[in-house]
Amino acid sequence: MKQKWIEKALDIARNGDIKGAYLLQKKLKKYISLNDKDDNYIKIAGVDISYTSDRSYCSVVVIDRFSMNIVERSFTEMEVSFPYVPGLLFFREFPIFFKCFQCLSKKPDLIIFDGHGLSHQRMMGIATMAGILLNIPTIGCAKSYLYGEYNPPDLKKFSSSELRVNNLLVGYVFRSKERVKPIFVSTGYKISPEMALKIVASLVLNNKLPLPTHLAHKFSEEYKELHRIRR
Questions:
Q1: Which of 8, 190, 223, 226 is 20 to 30 Å from 53 by CA-CA measure?
Q2: CA dihedral (207, 208, 211, 213) positive or negative
Q3: Which whole number is the average pLDDT over 179-204?
Q4: Quick one: pLDDT at residue 194?
Q5: Which domains does the chain show, CATH number per domain?
Q6: What mean pLDDT is reported for the chain?
């Protein structure tokens, strides 16, 4: 972990420091890595964050990639401190994710975020920045387009087309269900676009999202509703 930068990111988020957020993105850009380790990703975490008007709710679900069984999961909530600013989602979501991540008993081999990685205006999506700070391979798997050039993939399931930023291949637009809007799979940190697509495709079962993020979304919504009722 890059503890100094983690503390800086948390401080920026806590104070709503938009100028500081842009500066930190610029400083961390030099750490971008598209290189894989061997395909030894076994424990894969999915992350989802949901909101009410002033609070956020995070779920992290870790599964075994090959058995598809849940290994561990954690939940947490907190008040939202950073405003919604396009391109700065990391600073809105990292504090609650980091709090939830710290509740895990063991570090996952790879994390899939419901958001973007290098397919971002400054190549600094939440998956990339979190991966750099935690020094864990990450993938961005977003339900909607943010940035980059691509041609739509075919309508059949598992079709894909290249997603490029400034002509650099950063990911793929992936049709996870036939005739359903595609998802945007991008390199986060320490993983190639090709490996990111391979892993996401291997984790897609009957839902639009890969299993870890599908489960994280399901549990975060349930957790949010439970706490809403209690409040």
A1: 8
A2: negative
A3: 96
A4: 96
A5: 3-230 (3.30.2170.10)
A6: 94
Tens of pLDDT, residues 111-147: 999 999 999 999 999 999 999 999 999 999 999 999 9
- Who's near 118: CB < 8 A, 6+ residues apart? 32, 34, 125, 128, 140, 165, 168, 170, 171, 186, 187, 188
> What is the distance between the alpha carbons of residues 75 and 88, in angstroms, rounded to a whole number?
23
Predicted confidence at residue 231, as pLDDT, reads 57
